[in-house]
Design brief:
Rossmann fold; DNA polymerase, domain 1; 2 domains; seven-stranded mixed beta sheet; 13 helices; 7 strands
Length: about 300
C-alpha cells in the first residue's frame, strides 16, 4: 500500500481483469500505483502501462514499482489521449476516476475547501485554466451551467450571481473566498455535501473530466483484445451514469430506435456487462479507508 494514495476495491479489480491471462494492461489513473502493483504481483505474465496527468503520481509509482521496471512503464498524459493513440491490444484496462488522496491532502493543489487552499484544482499541476480563473472570468450563464451540470446544484443561478458580485469586489484566490459565498447563499443550512458539490463542479470543469471519460470509453473498448475487460471505478453519479449507459449499449445486440421495423445497426452485442449491479466497497474497506465509501465499480468484457 502506498502512503501517496490508498487504492480502492483492489481485489475486485484484479478479479475482473484476471491478469493471470497475461498480456498488456492499462492503468489509466495510476495514482500511487496500487492497482498496478496488484496486477503485476498477480503473475509475471502481465505488463502494465501506467498513465497519469500528475507528474508527482508518476514519480511515486515509478519509485514504488521499480522492481517491476521490465514489465511496467509510465506515460504522463490524459488517459483519453493515450487511449486514442494506443497501438497495442489490451488484455484489460482500469480507470479509477476522481482525485487521489495525495492530491486532496496537499493543500497547495487546491482540491479541498480547507482554509488557505488555493483555488487551483489542476490534476497536472500546470497548464490550463485554474478554478480561480473560472470563478473570476466565466460569464454568469456559464457559471450557472457548470454548477448545474457538474455539481447538480439546485441554486446554480443565485450562486452564479453571487460569485459575479463577489469578484467585482476582489478576485477569488483561496477556498474560503468561495466558501464565504456559499455561506451567504445557504446560511446555517450549508453542509459539507453542499461545498463538495460546488468544488466538484469546478474540478470537473478545470480538468475536462467528463470529456476525457467520454472519449476514453469507446477508445479503450476498441483497443481491448477479444475477451479483454474494462473496469471503471467512479465516485459520483455523473461519471457512473456515463459508464453504466456505455456498458449497457455495448452489451445490446440492437441499438436501433424502437420505431424501426427492421434492424439497421450492427445487430450483434460488442460484449457483456460483468457487473449486473454496481460493486461497492465492503464495510471493512470503508472503515479502513473512509474515502472509498462513494466508490462504484462496473466491469465489461469484450466479445471473444
Amino acid at each position: 500500500m502506498s502512503v501517496y494514495h490508498e487504492p480502492v476495491l483492489v481485489s475486485e479489480v484484479v478479479g475482473f481483469l484476471e491478469p493471470g491471462r497475461g498480456g498488456l494492461f492499462l492503468d489509466g489513473t495510476l495514482g500511487g500505483g496500487g492497482h498496478t502493483a496488484a496486477i503485476l504481483a498477480a503473475t509475471p505474465r502481465a505488463r502494465v502501462l501506467g498513465v497519469d496527468r500528475d507528474p508527482a503520481a508518476i514519480r511515486e509509482a515509478e519509485r514504488r514499482l521499480a522492481v517491476y521496471e521490465d514489465r511496467f512503464e509510465t506515460v504522463e498524459a490524459d488517459f483519453a489521449d493515450v487511449a486514442d493513440r494506443l497501438g497495442a491490444a489490451l488484455a484489460g484496462a482500469v480507470l479509477d476516476l476522481g482525485v487521489s488522496s495525495h492530491q486532496i491532502d496537499e493543500v497547495a493543489r487546491g482540491f479541498s475547501f480547507r482554509p488557505g487552499s488555493p483555488l487551483d484544482m489542476r490534476m497536472s499541476g500546470r497548464g490550463g485554466v485554474t478554478a480561480a480563473e473560472i470563478l473570476n472570468t466565466y460569464a454568469e450563464a456559464d457559471l450557472a451551467r457548470l454548477l448545474r451540470e457538474f455539481g447538480e446544484e439546485r441554486r446554480s443561478w443565485p450562486l452564479a450571481r453571487r460569485i459575479a458580485a463577489r469578484r467585482r469586489e476582489s478576485p477569488f484566490e483561496v477556498s474560503e473566498d468561495l466558501v464565504s459565498v456559499l455561506e451567504d447563499l445557504y446560511g446555517h443550512r450549508l453542509s459539507v455535501q453542499d461545498k463538495a458539490r460546488v468544488f466538484q463542479a469546478l474540478r470537473i470543469e478545470v480538468n475536462r473530466e467528463l470529456d476525457s471519460l467520454g472519449r476514453a470509453l469507446p477508445a479503450l473498448r476498441d483497443r481491448l483484445e477479444p475477451g479483454g475487460v474494462l473496469v471503471v471505478i467512479s465516485y459520483h453519479s455523473l461519471e457512473d451514469r456515463r459508464v453504466k449507459n456505455a456498458f449497457r449499449e455495448w452489451s445490446r445486440e440492437c441499438v436501433c430506435p424502437p420505431e424501426l421495423p427492421v434492424c439497421h445497426c450492427r445487430g450483434v452485442a460488442l460484449g457483456e456487462t460483468l457487473t449486473r449491479k454496481v460493486v461497492r466497497p465492503t464495510a471493512e474497506e470503508v472503515a479502513s479507508n473512509p474515502r472509498s465509501r462513494s466508490a462504484r465499480l462496473r466491469a465489461w468484457r469484450k466479445a471473444s
